[in-house]
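ok here's Carbohydrate binding module 65 domain-containing protein:
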Amino acid sequence: MKKVVSIFAGMAMAGIMSAFAVYADDVELAPKHALIQENNAVYTVESSELAASRFTEDTEITVVCDGVAGDVSPVKLVLDYWDYNEITEFEAGSPAWVEVEASSYKDGSAVFTYADIVKALGKNELSTVYAIDVASETTDIVCSGFNATNVISAEDAEENDLRTTVRIHARRPRQTSGWGQSMTITVDQFDISNMDMDSKIIAQYECDMEKDNPNSPVEFILQSTDDQISPKAKSGIVWAKVPPIIFTDKYAEFDYLDMADAYGTEDFSYVTIIHVGDTDKTPITCTDVYALNVKMKVPVVPEEPEDSSVAEEAEEITASEDSVKPVESKAPAADTKDSSSAAEENTGKKNIVLIVVGIVGGIIVAGLAIFLILGRKSRETYDVNKHRFVKK
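and the structure:
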């Protein structure tokens, strides 16, 4: 009996564990023109493409290299992350990086394991990684493939509320002053609705302000042009300015609740653009914005109309048919439309004429019948004694 109970208990536990199972997935990225770039980076994978927090103990990253022979890997991984543990330049932490050596290299493929990645990060969580660089000191390296196996699927990552860090880097930083916007980020680059009370924004910039200045050189702005929720919206427009909770001459931290208070609601689904602007204290040049501990959502891809392919095929068939027809036999579309309309119009007129002719004919027949009856009656007279009509 105990064995039976143990078996059923084991089956129940297996059922419970399967209900909470997270399914692994493989991610294949195809770098385009991935040559040596800034800081010896051959190729960079942003967390928006593949978040490190989706890695499992069975995850392996394979980097395919072209142009290098031998048994020694010409590339290594560089993990870019937000370091909470070593607070040096800023109270909320600072950006940092660490190298990961390949565990093996063969036939142009360098393999990096989960154990190597976690060891390199030390006490820092995978969710702090905002980018993975493929780096090399050789200038003739081309990265033609970046594959990660056995990672948590994007759907399961969203369902299990996994977090990540997002960096938005200004490729062409611009200096602004006089309440200008040094950096503008669209919803396609970062969706601020992925934030909650555990999230925060860090702006990194350059300016000439003294470190102990009590006035912040920067502000964070949430913009919407068609908001239907915020009580602060005027004709759908919201321009919400948020001051930082702490700042230096290089970094500024913005709090989620301050954003919600400035915008009028915690529902940021209508925010389409965010800015980092100056406060007219000193010119600034914003280079990066970091969104810390934000949620991951499966990107929504717009679906094409179901009949689009059918319509395209029909157009192609029509075009091919027209291309083989003699020019003389082709009639303009407008003429075809007019002739069909005229035919329909003529048919309608004929039907109306027939109806009118029928009505007139009926009237004529009825008139003749009445005329004959009256004519007959005019040739007879009523005999009172016989109680009937008799001929005159």
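+1. The chain has six helices and 21 strands.
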